Amino acid sequence: MKTIDVCLSPELMHLYPVHDKTVVVVDVLRATSCMVTAFAHGAESITPFANLDACREMKLKGYITSGERDGKKVEGFDKGNSPFEYMSDDIQGLKIAFTTTNGTMAIEKSKGAKEVIIGSFLNLNAVAKYLLFNENNVLVVCAGWKGRVNLEDTLFAGALVEKLKDYLGPDCDAPLAARHLYNIAKSDMSKFLSESSHVKRLNKLNIHEDFEFCLSIDKYNKLPRLKNGVLVS
Ligand code: 3SL
């Protein structure tokens, strides 16, 4: 039986060999939800950057620049990190250079993997279906917040483990913990997450609607994957 494991923070990645694994990077609030939304609305590619200045420089090469630091749009960038900014017709055909506090950092740290795909609740089923027919063992990398564990990414990991439980066995206790947590939370994830640190952070920035949107399950049938350092769908 293939296996599935969960890395609860990018700071723990040194514990997980990934060269032979498919890594699913998740940052439910909000980086990977934005990426999936952008591809669903016709974006051509997303180049993820951990470094802000490297991302900014892509403007000179004809990219649009997107992302945030501490939840706020970066000054001078074209777009921030709200999924609602990636739904309009002007997304069609764009090459996006993207940097976020945690999500793009988690992608950067996953680059040694056999392959990297992007997960969120918005494309949960597309991710599960792909993993089912893929030959590799799986590691879900939760972006967390500045090295700390967060609830929303853990819930996504749990949802994926739950969906695949008859086909992929847990590789340690983290996938079991995530799955149990998801099963407790699933009837009302919004309520379950209401006290979580990032939801409080987003509420202070007045962006509660992003939070609700990012919890929508299977809104898009898209599977972003990393090819030579660039995300394509
Ligand atoms: O850290 C990230 O990658 C972001 O998604 C965080 S925020 O939701 O924009 O604050």
What does this structure look like?
The chain is α/β, with parallel strands linked by helices. The protein has a single domain (about 1-230), classed as putative 2-phosphosulfolactate phosphatase, CATH 3.90.1560. About 35% of the residues lie in helices and about 20% in strands. The protein has nine helices and eleven strands. The chain has helices spanning about 30-40, 50-55, 105-110, 125-135, 150-165, 175-185, 190, 195-205, 210-215, and strands at about 1-5, 20-25, 45-50, 65-70, 70-75, 95-100, 115-120, 135-140, 170, 225, 230. The strands form three sheets. It has a five-stranded parallel beta sheet with strand order 7-2-8-1-9, sandwiched between helices. Strands 3-6-4-5 form a four-stranded mixed beta sheet. The protein has a two-stranded antiparallel ribbon with strand order 10-11. A hairpin with a 2-residue loop joins strand 10 and strand 11 (about 230). The two termini are about 30 Å apart. The mean pLDDT is about 95. The structure holds (2R)-3-sulfolactic acid (3SL). (2R)-3-sulfolactic acid (3SL) binds near residues 30 and 81. (2R)-3-sulfolactic acid binds near residues 27, 29, 31 and 103.
Rg from alpha-carbon coordinates: 16 Å
CATH architecture: Alpha-Beta Complex
Strand arrangement, major sheet: 7-2-8-1-9
Following the backbone from N to C, one meets helices and strands in this order, namely EEHEHEEEHEHEHEHHHHEE
Question: How would the global form be characterised?
Answer: globular
Bound molecules: (2R)-3-sulfolactic acid
Low-confidence stretches at least 5 residues in length (pLDDT < 50)? none
- Please indicate the percent range of residues in DSSP E strands (runs of 2 or more): 15-25%
* Largest beta-sheet characterization: 5 strands, parallel
CATH level-four homologous superfamily name: ComB-like
Secondary structure: number of strands: 11
Number of domains: 1
Tell me roughly what share of residues is in helical segments.
Answer: 25-40%
Determine the mean pLDDT.
Answer: 96
Give the class-level CATH name: Alpha Beta
Instruction: State the CATH topology.
Output: putative 2-phosphosulfolactate phosphatase
Annotation field: number of helices = 9
Give the end-to-end Cα distance, rounded to a whole number of Å: 28 Å
Category by helix and strand content: alpha/beta
